[in-house]
Design brief:
Layout (H helix, E strand, L loop, with lengths): L2 H17 L6 E2 L3 E4 H20 L12 H9 L21 H19 L6 E4 L3 E4 H23 L2
Antiparallel strand pairs: 1-2, 3-4
């Protein structure tokens, strides 16, 4: 992983941290979820994807074209409300600052670990298929940014 990509991910994690004090804010015209829900979900995905990638067998990676992966990761945009999050990355009913900070610490450790993974380390996404390390990092960037944009819109009043 390039240092540039690591820096982008680190900056996104810092933006998550900066929004933790507003975790209780809700704006139903934007989302039925709170800021805390958005942050928790983004961190759960970040950590789950990072762990999956770290535990993948690079020998099992084989490129296969995927239309939606190509369009959405290239554009850097995920449409809102089109995909339901898998259960294992759904936030709890009550999101605490302590839990967000703990997940944030884990995510920062993952950024460092992702750097040393082989290029064919991968993550298997339920829509996009197998994502190489490079595409996995792009997915983490786009997904995290997607939820930070929702947070920004929730906080606009």
């Amino acid at each position: 992983m390039s240092n540039h990509r690591a820096e982008i991910l680190s900056q996104l994690l810092s933006k998550i941290e900066a929004n933790i004090p507003q975790k209780e804010v809700k704006n139903p015209s934007v989302s039925n979820a709170t800021v805390g829900w958005q942050l928790d979900h983004a961190l759960k995905v970040f950590n789950a994807v990072s762990e999956w990638t770290a535990n993948s067998n690079p020998e099992d990676y084989k490129y296969k074209f995927n239309y939606w992966r190509t369009i959405l990761l290239t554009s850097g945009y995920f449409p809102r409300g089109k995909v339901k999050a898998p259960k294992h990355v759904l936030p709890p009913e009550t999101v605490t600052s302590e839990d967000l900070l703990k997940q944030l610490e884990t995510a920062r450790i993952h950024v460092g670990k992702l750097k040393s993974l082989p290029e064919k380390a991968y993550f298997k996404h339920f829509i996009f298929g197998k994502l190489s390390k490079k595409k996995t990092l792009r997915f983490l960037e786009v997904h995290t940014n997607h939820h930070l944009k929702i947070v920004k819109d929730i906080l606009k009043k």
